[in-house]
Write a structure and sequence with these properties.
Layout lengths: L12 E5 L28 H12 L5 E5 L9 H9 L6 E6 L4 H11 L3 E5 L5 H8 L4 H14 L3 E8 L8 H10 L3 E6 L17 H12 L3 E2 L9 E4 L5 E5 L12 E4 L4 E3 L8 E2 L1 H5 L4 H13 L5 H7 L9 H6 L5 H4 L2
Helix pairs in contact: 1-2, 2-3, 3-5
Bound molecules: S-adenosylmethionine.
The site of S-adenosylmethionine has 20 residues, from strand 3, strand 5 and helix 12.
Amino acid sequence: MSVVDRLNRPLRSLRISVTDRCNLRCQYCMPEDDYVWLPREDILTFEEVSQLVDIFAGLGVGKVRLTGGEPLLRRDLPALVRLLAAKPTTRDLALTTNGILLADQAKALRSAGLHRITISLDTLHGDRFKALTRFDALDAVLAGIREAAAVGFDSVKLDTVVVRGVNDDELADLVECGKTVTAEVRFIEYMDVGGATKWSPEAVVTRREMLAMLAARYGPITPVEEESSAPADRFRLRDGTIFGIISSTTEPFCRSCDRSRLTADGLWYLCLYAQRGVDLRRPLRSGASPEEMRSVLTSVWQQRADRGAEVRLAAAERKPFIPIETLQREPHLEMHTRGG
Ligand code: SAM
């Protein structure tokens, strides 16, 4: 069964945050000194996540991505991967990680049935990595990337948030790094999502600028023609290397968005920019039947008209989306809680 929203968009993909905790403090995501964390007792168990995934599958969701926070901080994550991978409805099971703990966990995740992995890598300079994330962990991330490449995932991707004056001189070096591990690199425009309290329009390097920088180094770049609801537009260099650009800030793709997000404590968000989520933990824990849950999800999705990134683009004066005081009152508005 496939359910569509008011803009005729099907629900196909669910991003599940398995923890709001992170072991980095990236300037574009978690730049503050203190955060309000979700209460431990509210965090969904693996069994509860699995039940919800079954309910979402009934609405047409076959793509699941585990994220966070940093998902590899969640104890025994391969057990959840095993539960989800065993479902005949799970067509695609992926994970987004900062890679720090990956060298130790890649093999177990692959054996548990994880199909694809995306690793965040913003710089190849140790000192920049430390300045950007507050931790001296680039070598651990690179070891994680090498191990991911070695254990044979269906695909390994490297995601870079490009920030002006921070890492915008490294685009070609990152493409070259991707080639060494057969990973597709994707450049993400800096977004003004909740949590990006240091965001400014000037710090955004646009897709157009990125293409110009890469063309200066590699010569002509050709778009890859494909029908896809994936967030990245893909491009080919003359030597055949493919890379992607996720231009959520300057050229949003809300019209083809088939994604929604589940927080670690079971709130369901229909848009990265949504201010309110639907609490699925409460009905689940109070014994609602799968049919009851499915009918709630269906009617919520059918009413969906969100076009968060397009609405932000149309805003006359753009500054960080959510002020710090509001984030402290409502941590669900944070990107790291909602799951990137
Ligand atoms: N900890 C994991 C990681 O680092 O990949 C998963 C969670 S992280 C929130 C998921 C993705 O969101 C990462 O690729 C990160 O770079 C991206 N992200 C976070 N804040 C962003 C922002 N302000 N603009 C664009 N992308 C952002």
